Amino acid sequence: MKNTKRAKLEAAGWAVGSVKQFLGLSEADEALINMKLGLSHSLRARRQQEGLSQVQLAERLRSSQSRVAKMEAGDPSVSMDLLVSSLLLLGATSADLAKSIRGGVKGKGRHAA
Amino acid sequence: MKNTKRAKLEAAGWAVGSVKQFLGLSEADEALINMKLGLSHSLRARRQQEGLSQVQLAERLRSSQSRVAKMEAGDPSVSMDLLVSSLLLLGATSADLAKSIRGGVKGKGRHAA
DNA sequence: TCATTCTATGTCATATGTGACATATCGTCA
DNA sequence: TGACGATATGTCACATATGACATAGAATGA
User: Fold this and answer.
1) pLDDT digits (tens, 9 = 90+) for B43-59
2) Domain covering A5-101 in this structure, CATH number
3) Around Cβ B16, how many Cβ atoms within 10 Å?
């Protein structure tokens, strides 16, 4: 993963999938990104659900606010492992994660195709 | 992740979950490991389905035989990202992955509790 | 027995991810 | 306006994952 524009575009609310051929993304790359974005959004949703700030969540995860921000932004520098283990620490079940992964990005995107 | 005995035990066919308190594993750690094992097994299943050797699969993935072996063995050194992207390259869909993740290890384990 | 093929395991240099820090942006309230 | 809290972004030292290589074990066939 190199291109950073990608994540920015997507985090900015693009309908994911629309940027596929735009950059040289393979189907697999695209799918992986979608899955990660699904997890990112789940993470933010759960955090807000619990009424936590990024700082508070970072404490629970024994991480830092900046990393939490990056997780939620779908930054290419965050691994799926980190997203998943964070969600698990927030109480998500395997079934929850499966849903996030399968559904990819759920939030009604602006610019929807 | 540090302990390597863990993966060995599990790869050896233990009913996953039975080793939980045995080592100092949190629920989250355990869940993550289960998910990874589910993916590992899916990978092996798909490879065999296609009649590929580990060497052949490694070529497709632009990786090496040893890493494929480690992926399939559930070695702690392999990331979820690698497992997932490998499965995607093998043609798995998001739904397939969701299933593997949700179900964790599927194979009827010996030593079942 | 020896070859051959496939898989497992250990090690290493390099690539990538991570937490931490600084700093910027944004919104809200006085 | 300024101050405050929350979030975003860039950078860096250190940790971990990765591909590659060597080598060992296991299974099969001659």
Assistant:
1) 999 999 999 999 999 99
2) 1.10.260.40
3) 18
